[in-house]
Each structure stands twice: as C-alpha cells, then as structure tokens.
C-alpha cells in the first residue's frame, strides 16, 4: 500500500469544488498530472486490486487505484469483468464526491474500452454514468451537453439502441430546462423511428414523456392522446412497477386538470402504492396530490386521517404539513389562514405547478364564498367596509366584486363615485307560472301520442227535419285543432 499512496488525479493539490484540469488529448490524463509526473503505473485488473481500492481510507486514493486498473491494457474476459466492476465503483465514488466533470471525462476516456465489450454492456455503463451525473445537484446543463455528445458518438458508431435511449433522456432534460420546442422536435422524430422498430418498452417511455411535454404546453387533448398511446403499448408487454406508477401518476394529473378529482384520486392512490412498495421518492408527491383531491371535493376532514395512517406516517414532512394547513384553512373557510399557509409553505405549494394551479382555483372559490356571506345582510355597503371585514386590499375586493357581478353570482352594481356596492333583491317568480307550463307540456305529450287517433265532431245541418230539429253529421276533426283548443283553454283559465 505504501507505493500506491500517490493519487493519480493529484487530489491533494486540487481545491475542493474546483473544476478538474483539462485532459490531455493523447494520454487522457489531466495536463497538470502529466506535467507534474505524479502518474502511477497501471495495476493488474484482478479482484485483489478491487479489494485494495475498497480498503483505501481516503476516497481520493480509491479513485486513483480504480483509474490505474482501467489503464491496464489487458483485454482478457476476466480483466474485462474486473474493469466493468471498477467502472461501477469509480462512478459511485465520483458521484459521492460530486465530481460531475470527472464523470464526463471518464465517459470520454472509456470509448476505446467500449469497442471491446458487447453493445448491451456499453449501453448499461453509459446510462449508469449519466444517471450518476444526474444525482449531482446543479448539473442540468452538464447533463444536456453530455447527452448531446453521446448522441453524436452513438450516431457515428451506429449504435441505434443506445442512441434512442440517450435521445429520450435528452428530451426529458430539455423539457425540465423548459426548452419545449427543441424537446418536441426531438421526440417527433424519435417516436416515428421507435414505432418502426416496434420497441414497446421504449415507446411507453417516449409516449409518457410526450404527454408530460404537451401538458407543460397546456395542450390537454394531445397530452391525453399521448397517454392513451402509452397505455396501449403498455398493455402489450410487461411494464415494471415504477413505470406503471408513472403512468398512473400522469393519468391522475390529467384527470385533476379536468376537475374529475374522484377519478384522479384513484389514480394517485395506485401510483402511491407502486412507489411506496419501491421506496421511490415520488411516493410523497402522489400522497400530496391525493390530499389535494380530497380538499378540492370538500372532504378536508379526511386529510388528517390519511396523514395519520400507517403509510402516511412514513412520509411526514413539509409536503404533508403544507397540505394539512391548506385543509384546515379550507374547513374553516378562512382566507387569512389560507394565505398564511401559502406564505409559510411556499416551496411546497406555490413552486409545485400542479398544486399551485388547483389552489389558485380553490382560493377564488373561498374568496367568492366569503364575499357572498359578507354582503348578504346589506342592500348598500361601502367597498372599504367589505375589504376591512375580509382583510384584503380595497382594489382587490372591488375587482373581485365586479367579476362576480359579471358572472351573475349575485345581482348588483358598483357605484364607483360613492365607493359603494348596491345589491339588488332577487326577483321572486310565482310558482303557478311554472306549474302551468308543466301542465301544458304534459297535455302536449299526451296529444302527440294520440296523433293517429281521429276524433269526430257532430255538426248541425241547415235543413230541418219533420220534428223541427236540425240533423247532425259526423265530421273528422284533426287532433292538432284539439291541442290548440286545450292550450287556449288552459291559458284562459290561468289568466282568470
């Protein structure tokens, strides 16, 4: 161990958090290392070398040993297997040390190694390193550039299977970075290509991503169509539980957007069960959206029971506390408590676009209910007095009252000169009018059913008989005439 203490990457000389030195194009090592002569010879790729790296006390020393294992030129099956294990350990260590640039350079240095191992293993290693970079905070731009580099390399090497998956990952990163146009263009070509190859599993991922992209663009019809396509492809194959949970989560989001909160709750519940079994961090978001649905259907009292359940206790934290505060404000019909919850839990409520959109609608509903309750005793009241009672700015209250009048939530007008609200009494309608119209409608239905039955009317003739009586004859009379007569007769009685 004494000969291996010198780190390959000159870790002791690098400032923590600083970017690594530029790699030398010939050797693949950093220029600072090549110039200083600190590089060590390669190690034989054996299990003892891996154990030696794992036993090192300093992460920098372990990283140095693993790099030296990868520099070994041996290409025997055992050496290749050891190198694959070294790559996995090295990517984990670099991820723990949050050295994203080193992970990027590692992916570039491994390209000669990829030419001697199967393509499936290459795809696994590349995706593993990209995932490791993704787990380092603040590396979104680096991930995008890394994916673009790998797309170019895979296209040049004609590795279609890997390229399609890296392009799907790139589209996801572009969507998260709000570069929607570029992501949509990339997905459009990718979907056509994958459909021709009939790769169902990848097609499910791409259709799900397309649904999320259209939802971000507020195009609900296309988002629903893409989700339906994902479900159709998923029905033909076995879908992993995590992916099925993602489908259910997206389904719940779309149903909630259409105000179908009961159906959305059932989808969120299915997604929560799938993520909870896998200990996926998305479980807390599914549970949060479940509580949101309960609040939106005026069942705020159920929120406390769900949080205190066995599954809910596992995810206690700011997200559930925020939804509990909103539920309490909603059950008390208090705008002040609602605004306090929005202020105290801003990251959990306002920075979540799905929750924020529905809570905005809930806030408007609560505001309308409170305003209607306050103006009910008055026929004429100052707007400033209403604003004082509801503890909101005067201009905000005036704007909302104007909107409610236009929406016919109540009858009234605003006297802006006097700063008053004038409330009109609701015009009372006599119940007999509606009863009369219902009677006429029922008679009309009965006459329509008997339209084929002819009726007769006995009419007197102009000639008298011997006894001085006028003879009568039967005349066919249309039913429509009787209908008109009944309507006129009923109308006359109603007016009397």
TrEMBL record:
Keywords: Proteasome. GO terms for biological process: protein catabolic process. InterPro entries: 26S_Proteasome/COP9_Components (IPR050871), PCI_dom (IPR000717), Rpn6_N (IPR040773), TPR-like_helical_dom_sf (IPR011990), WH_DNA-bd_sf (IPR036390). It comes from the Eukaryota. Residues 1-40 are annotated as: Disordered. GO terms for cellular component: proteasome complex. Gene3D superfamilies: 1.25.40.570. Residues 260-428 form the PCI domain. Belongs to the proteasome subunit S9 family. This is PCI domain-containing protein.
């Amino acid at each position: 161990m004494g000969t291996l203490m010198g780190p390959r990457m000159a870790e002791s000389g690098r400032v923590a958090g600083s970017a690594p030195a530029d790699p030398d194009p010939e050797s693949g090592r950093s220029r600072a290392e090549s110039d200083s002569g600190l590089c060590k010879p390669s190690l034989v790729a054996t299990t003892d070398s891996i154990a030696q790296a794992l036993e090192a006390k300093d992460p920098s020393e372990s990283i140095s040993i693993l790099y030296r294992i990868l520099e070994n030129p041996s290409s025997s099956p055992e050496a290749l297997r050891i190198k694959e294990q070294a790559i996995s350990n090295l990517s984990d260590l670099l991820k723990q040390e949050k050295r994203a640039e080193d992970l990027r350079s590692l992916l570039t240095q491994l390209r000669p190694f990829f030419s001697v191992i199967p393509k499936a293993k290459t795809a696994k290693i590349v995706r593993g390193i990209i995932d490791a970079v993704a787990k380092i905070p603040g590396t979104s731009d680096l991930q995008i550039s890394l994916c673009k580099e790998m797309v170019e390399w895979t296209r040049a090497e004609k590795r279609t299977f890997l390229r399609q998956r890296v392009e799907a990952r790139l589209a996801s990163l572009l969507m998260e970075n709000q570069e929607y146009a570029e992501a949509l263009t990339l997905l459009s070509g990718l979907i056509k290509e994958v459909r021709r190859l009939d790769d169902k599993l990848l097609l499910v991922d791409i259709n799900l991503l397309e649904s999320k992209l259209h939802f971000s663009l507020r195009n609900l019809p296309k988002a629903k169509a893409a989700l339906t396509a994902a479900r159709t492809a998923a029905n033909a194959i076995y879908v992993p539980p995590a992916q099925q949970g993602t489908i259910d989560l997206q389904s719940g989001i779309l149903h909630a957007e259409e105000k179908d909160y009961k159906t959305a709750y059932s989808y969120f519940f299915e997604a929560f069960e799938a993520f909870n079994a896998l200990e996926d961090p998305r479980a807390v978001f599914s549970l949060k959206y479940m509580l949101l649905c309960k609040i939106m259907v005026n069942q705020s009292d159920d929120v406390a029971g769900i949080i205190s359940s066995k599954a809910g206790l596992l995810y206690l934290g700011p997200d559930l506390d925020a939804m509990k505060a909103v539920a309490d404000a909603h059950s008390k019909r208090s705008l002040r408590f609602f605004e306090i919850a929005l202020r105290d839990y801003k990251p959990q409520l306002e920075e979540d676009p799905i929750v924020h959109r529905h809570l905005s609608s809930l806030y408007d509903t609560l505001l309308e209910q409170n305003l209607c309750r306050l103006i009910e005793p008055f026929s004429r009241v100052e707007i400033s007095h209403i604003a004082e009672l509801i503890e909101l700015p005067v201009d905000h209250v005036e704007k909302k009252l104007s909107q409610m009048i236009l929406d016919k939530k109540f009858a009234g007008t605003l006297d802006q000169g006097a700063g008053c609200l004038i409330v009109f009494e609701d015009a009372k309608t006599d119940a007999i009018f509606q009863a009369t119209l219902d009677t006429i409608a029922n008679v009309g239905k009965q006459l329509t059913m008997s339209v084929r039955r002819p009726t007769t009317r006995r009419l007197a003739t102009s000639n008298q008989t011997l006894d001085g009586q006028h003879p009568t004859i039967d005349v066919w009379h249309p039913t429509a005439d009787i209908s008109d007569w009944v309507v006129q007769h009923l109308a006359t009685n109603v007016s009397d």
